[in-house]
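Notes continue from the previous slide.

Worked example: a multi-chain complex. Inputs as given:
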Amino acid sequence: MLQDEFLDGDLEANRAVLWTKRLSPIPRGHFGYLASYDSQPVGFAFAFGEHDAQWGTQVDNLHVLQDFRSKGIGSMLLASVAAQAVDTHGHLGVYLWVYEQNLAARKYYEGLGAVAVERAVITPPGGGKVSEWRYTWRSAAALLSALRRGA
Ligand SMILES: CC(C)(COP(=O)(O)OP(=O)(O)OC[C@H]1O[C@@H](n2cnc3c(N)ncnc32)[C@H](O)[C@@H]1OP(=O)(O)O)[C@@H](O)C(=O)NCCC(=O)NCCS
């Protein structure tokens, strides 16, 4: 999905620039959660509260280290985001963009009741073109209860 030259480059420096900018300071309404195991980070989620008037809070990042997947960590992170969205923007939905080729993540979101409403072609980090889908939940509470049902 991402170009070889980008993935072979200095990803750590690239991401450090992005996250330093994002977190200093954190804009109002932006929030995130870090999952750790044995004091080591194993996953994180980051969201923009009330980001879109129609679709609500955007989950911009949800990542779990490969060896820690399918243990409920992603769902725990997403539930934390959903619970915060319920508390702060309960009248709005939740959405995210996922690469079309990311079939595992799409299956995971569909299992949680997300509805794909829109396809876009974008330039991902590192260049090139990639298709992605907007997955939506009509409310943060609907996402939270789907996560609780699956727990
Ligand atoms: C998508 C992603 C965040 C999900 O995180 P995760 O920690 O694997 O998610 P969970 O463990 O909560 O759930 C994943 C699956 O494991 C199952 N599961 C949860 N707890 C489990 C457990 N204790 N034992 C076995 N299976 C379990 C869930 O039911 C779910 O199954 P499903 O996909 O068939 O519905 C993770 O796979 C990831 O980081 N992927 C790469 C990055 C990525 O694509 N991010 C999304 C960008 S939009």
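Summary box: Residues 4-150 form a domain with the Aminopeptidase fold (CATH 3.40.630.30). The chain is about 35% helix and 35% strand.
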